[in-house]
Amino acid sequence: NRMLHIHLLRFGVNTSEWLLKAMCGSVEIRTVYVGHRQARAVVISRLSCERAGTRFNVRGTNDDGHVANFVETEQIIYLDNEVTSFLQTRGSVPLFWEQPGIQVGSHKVKISRGFEASAPAFDRHISMIKQRYGQQVIVNLLGSSLIGGKEGEAMLSQMFQNHHSLSQHKDVPHIIFDYHQECRGGNMKNLSKLKAKVEKYLDSFSLFYAVGPVVLNEQSGTIRTNCLDCLDRTNCVQTFFALEILSKQLTMLKLFEKQQMVSRFEEVFRQMWINNGNE
C-alpha cells in the first residue's frame, strides 16, 4: 500500500509511527524447541504489487520489466539473539506472452510481441533483480517436448533461452530442468540432477547470518525459479533448495550435529513450504 503513503513522503512527512504498511503475501511462524530454548522458524513470501493479477489473466512482463507472480520467499531461523535467513525468488517468464481462453485446458500460450519488441523489457527485468538481489541464476522448469499438450511451454522456454543468450545478461547461468519429464510419477529422486547443477551457486551465494546488531555473513545472490504458472512446480523446487540450505543455517547456529534437531526443523519447514505453495 505504498501508494497511499507516497504523497506524504514527497513532502518529507515521517509516517512510520502512525501509518500502517501492508504487504500482499503470506507469513508463517512456528516454535521449535531447542533443549530449554525456543527457536522461531519462519517462512515469509512477499508478492510484488507491480504486476498483480489472477492466473491466466496476467502473464509475462510489462514494459518496465515487472513480471506476473513475482515473489520473494525468505526462510528464517531466530534463536536467542542469532538470526539466519535464505532468500529466493520466482516469477513469470519475462517476455510478452499470454494465455487467452475461457476453460482450463483451452489456454494456449501466445507470444504477443516479437523478439525486438520484447528485448528491452527482458533486459530491464534481469537488470532490476541483479541490482536488488545481487548475482542471479535462472532455473527454468518449463516443458521441453514439442509433441502433445506442452508444445506451448517448449516454445516459450526456447524463446526465453534465445533472449537470454542474445542479451547483455548472458553471463547469468540459465539452467534447464524439465520438471514434468524428470519427476514423472512423483519421482523426486531426479531432483539430485538439479542439485548437481545449482550446488556451486548455492555455495557461492551463501546466506545471511547475524548475532545481535552484528552482521557476520551476507547472501550475495539469488536463484530465480520459474515454470508456467510459478506455482506448484516452482514451489516444489524452491522447497528442495530451502531444505538443502537448512543444513547450513543449522550449522551456523551450531545445531546441525544433533540429528533429532535437524529432523525436527526439516519436518517443520517442509510443512511450512507446503502451506506457502497453497497460499
UniProtKB/TrEMBL annotation:
Domain annotation SAC: ranges: 1-279
Gene Ontology MF: a single term: phosphatidylinositol-3-phosphate phosphatase activity
InterPro entries, per database record: SAC_dom
Domain of life, per lineage: Eukaryota
EC number of the protein: 3.1.3.64
Pfam families associated with the record: Syja_N
GO cellular component terms, semicolon-separated: endoplasmic reticulum
One BP annotation, GO: phosphatidylinositol dephosphorylation
Catalysed reaction equations from the record: a 1,2-diacyl-sn-glycero-3-phospho-(1D-myo-inositol-3-phosphate) + H2O = a 1,2-diacyl-sn-glycero-3-phospho-(1D-myo-inositol) + phosphate; a 1,2-diacyl-sn-glycero-3-phospho-(1D-myo-inositol 4-phosphate) + H2O = a 1,2-diacyl-sn-glycero-3-phospho-(1D-myo-inositol) + phosphate
Protein name in UniProt: Phosphatidylinositol-3-phosphatase SAC1
Organism the protein comes from: Bracon brevicornis
Lineage: Eukaryota, Metazoa, Ecdysozoa, Arthropoda, Hexapoda
